[in-house]
Design brief:
- By secondary structure, the protein is α+β, with helices and mostly antiparallel strands.
- Helices cover 32% and strands 27% of the residues.
- The chain contains 15 helices and 21 strands.
- The longest helix has 22 residues, at 79-100.
- The N and C termini lie far apart (57 Å).
Length: 499
């Protein structure tokens, strides 16, 4: 076998927020371990973690209506919202630890305070929003949330949405000021700069082509240099596949039984970006609406203030699109080549089940700019076409697997697949993804390194004071964590003005 060969402790595939988080956690827990990173693009955070390829919402279930479901008896199930909020608090604590210990600096370059709002129209949805608000308000995680169906109050909160509104349809919103806008691209780059300082070997423009198990239980990777075309072989005791949409193919190549009977369905997103500074200045919130019938949860319409490169922007979307690629920089054959004998029935079952999603995606792909503007006008009644441009966001690969609900069930969350012996783990799926990266990576560490967890626990608790505890059940600790993260991450200021 030709090509250079090296051995290391840990290999991370993909230089996105997930690998950045796992690498940073491991370097704090076991600084002496050798870590190598392979990324096929020329820099970190260029794909799903890039600030233009995701919504930048610090997903804490404050405004996302799909995380609270109305049950047949009319009550609201908030269990998913609680889980996601608790998971985001874990990320906030870890980021605070990094800033406090000067491992990364200038938190305002990656996180900003921003109200999170839900807005609905029509009697039925207003009733639902009121019930949701009442269910959440009784929980300490959602303290400070306000509800209003008073047009004068809404005009104060969301002037851009309320002015020139001629419809007499009832409209209501909830608002909570403790929301955030997160630039995951900037955070990913900061974490990789930190890892480089810690002697982590980061190899850009290096694409992992194959993964095999060696006779002594290690994983051998075939890695090709994108520029020179030459191949090298690298072995490691532990491998993490964090390649976004590219993870599924590599998981399949590993041959682990846990990776069988899993498929992927790609959905792309398109955002509209405002280029009129006067319009941008009139809005200061992330406002989420309700998903249309048949739409995947990642296609919930929202009008977002964003802070990108310390500049205030305004985005609306996402409109769903379809491409057979699993990554923006992927291949048109990604979907076809992901179909294997062990997952073909799972994929076919999903296809038969998800006809409404297929129909929805076809309709979305066919939309003209003017039809997209009409959807935007449900939020901003007097939106002008010349003020808005289209931007293609990232590709997301929704996981398809066999579950208790039946064969070929489409999963809309973030999925972690690990080998029984914990030697390899892969991350698949979509939202809330990046926001819950720290929780997800701790789950992987727990599953893959059970024998070290006892000695690591003290350090983990230093990084994440609430580790192993429910914040909802410990309101005093929750208050403490909120105060600490807000202070360290500089989130106390009501509003900042950027040009």
């Amino acid at each position: 076998m030709s090509g250079k060969e090296t051995k290391t402790d840990v290999i991370l595939i993909g230089a996105g927020i997930m690998s950045a988080t796992l690498g940073t956690l491991l370097k704090e827990l076991v600084p002496e371990w050798e870590i190598k990173v392979f990324e096929k693009l020329e820099n970190a955070g260029k794909e799903s973690s890039n600030e233009w390829n995701n919504a930048g919402t610090g997903h804490a279930a404050l405004c996302e209506l799909n995380y609270t479901v109305e049950k047949p008896d009319g009550s609201i199930d908030i269990s998913k919202a609680i889980n996601i909020n608790e998971q985001f608090q874990v990320s906030m604590q870890f980021w605070s630890y990094l800033v406090k210990n000067k491992l990364i600096k200038n938190p305002q370059d990656f996180i900003m305070p921003l109200p999170h709002m839900s807005m609905v129209q029509g009697e039925k949805d207003v009733k639902f929003l009121k019930k949701r608000f009442e269910a959440l308000l009784s929980n300490p995680l959602f303290k400070g949330m306000e509800f209003s169906d008073n047009p004068a109050k809404l005009m104060e909160w969301i002037p851009l949405i309320m002015q020139n509104r001629t419809s007499d349809e009832p409209i209501a919103a909830t608002k909570i000021d403790s929301g955030t806008d997160v630039n995951f691209g900037a955070l990913t780059k900061m974490l990789f700069d930190h890892l480089k300082d810690k002697n982590v070997d980061i190899k850009y423009k290096n694409s992992v082509e194959n993964i095999n198990r060696t006779s002594d239980g290690l994983w051998k990777l075939k890695v090709r240099n994108v520029d020179s075309g030459s191949a090298e072989y690298h072995t490691a005791k532990f491998v993490f596949i964090g390649g976004g949409g590219g993870s599924l193919h590599l998981l399949q190549k590993s041959g682990i039984p846990e990776g069988k009977h899993i498929g992927g369905f790609p959905v792309s997103g398109i955002f509209m970006v405002c280029k009129n500074p006067e319009v941008i200045a009139q809005h200061h919130a992330k406002v989420y609406g309700k998903a249309k019938l048949g739409a995947p949860p990642m296609s919930v319409p929202h009008l977002d203030t964003r802070f990108i490169d310390n500049k205030k922007s305004l985005l609306f979307g996402p409109f769903a699109g379809f491409s057979p690629k699993f990554l923006k920089t992927g291949s048109m054959f990604d979907l076809v080549t992901s179909v294997k004998p062990n997952n073909v029935l799972t994929m076919l079952a999903a296809g038969a089940k998800e006809m409404s999603l297929t129909k929805y995606l076809i309709q979305q792909v066919m939309l003209t700019k003017e039809q997209r503007m009409e959807e935007l006008r449900e939020f901003i009644p007097n939106a002008k076409s010349e003020d808005w441009d289209l931007v293609v966001a990232g590709q997301r690969v929704q996981v398809i697997k066999d579950t208790a609900e039946g064969k070929g069930t489409l999963q809309f969350g973030t999925e972690v697949i690990t080998a029984a012996d914990g030697s390899i783990a892969a991350l698949l799926g979509a939202s809330p993804g990046a926001s819950t990266a720290v929780h997800v990576m701790l789950k992987i560490i727990n599953k893959c390194f059970p024998q070290q967890m006892n000695q690591w626990e003290t350090k983990i608790k230093e990084m994440i004071p609430s580790y192993g505890m429910s914040l909802m059940e410990n309101p005093d600790l929750l208050e403490e964590v909120h105060a600490l993260t807000a202070k360290t991450l500089d989130l106390n200021e009501k509003e900042r003005v950027y040009t």
